[in-house]
Design a protein that fits this description.
- By secondary structure, the chain is α+β, with helices and mostly antiparallel strands.
- The protein has a domain of 79 residues: 2-Layer Sandwich (Alpha-Beta Plaits), CATH 3.30.70.920.
- 44% of the residues lie in helices and 18% in strands.
- A hairpin with a 6-residue loop joins strand 4 and strand 5.
- Helix 2 runs antiparallel to helix 7 and helix 3 crosses helix 4.
- The N and C termini lie far apart (46 Å).
- About 7% of the residues have low confidence.
Length: 185
């Protein structure tokens, strides 16, 4: 029980203080129904201008610009590189690597994982696994090489890999935005 508490506290501290790909994790802000409707329009057409959004939502251009600025400051919107498909870059394979680490080396392990270009996401977990690492690879040999790089990181005790066969439901926020927009009417 004590190790689980230490693990949870370490992960919480790491997530509070951590930067990811040079982007500092910021405090979250609560969005309202207008924000949700605006974000749904942007999801539908990311190239929408402030004037277009204002017209479609019945808001002033200044209101739209102020909300966009607030989102940028609060870190509401993720980085653009999240929209690039690894397959388009020549990385058709993806896998999740369940990683168990020495808790005293957690920060160093995360830093080392961030140095591997094929590591596209690292998530701190509760339970039997400490980290879930999403990796992409060009082929099976490349995936084997990446798995070896992860295992050679000081502090990584054990890994277990699961190959992604097909993404059935990709990352999405539109259903949650639609709920928030509907609840605020």
């Amino acid at each position: 029980m004590r190790s689980a508490q230490v693990k949870a506290a370490t992960l919480c501290r790491m997530l509070r203080n951590r930067s990811r790909n040079g982007v500092i994790l910021r405090r979250m802000t609560n969005l309202d129904g207008t924000d949700a409707r605006m974000l749904m329009l942007l999801a539908e057409n990311p190239r929408s201008t402030g004037v277009e959004l204002a017209q479609r939502l019945g808001l002033s251009r200044n209101t739209v610009q102020a909300r966009l600025a607030k989102w940028e400051t609060a870190g509401v919107l993720g980085s653009f590189d999240r929209r690039v498909e690894p397959r388009a870059l020549g990385y058709p394979l993806a896998a999740y690597v369940a990683t168990i680490v020495d808790q005293h080396r957690l920060d160093a392990v995360v830093d080392a994982l961030a140095e591997i270009p094929e590591v596209i996401e690292v998530t701190g977990m509760t339970g039997a696994t400490d980290l879930t690492v999403k990796v992409v690879a060009r082929d099976a040999d490349d995936l084997y090489k990446i798995a070896g790089q992860i295992l050679r990181i000081p502090g990584v005790e054990r890994t277990n890999m699961g190959l992604v066969m097909r993404e059935l439901v990709g990352p999405r926020m539109t259903p949650l935005l639609a709920r928030l927009a509907e609840e605020s009417r």
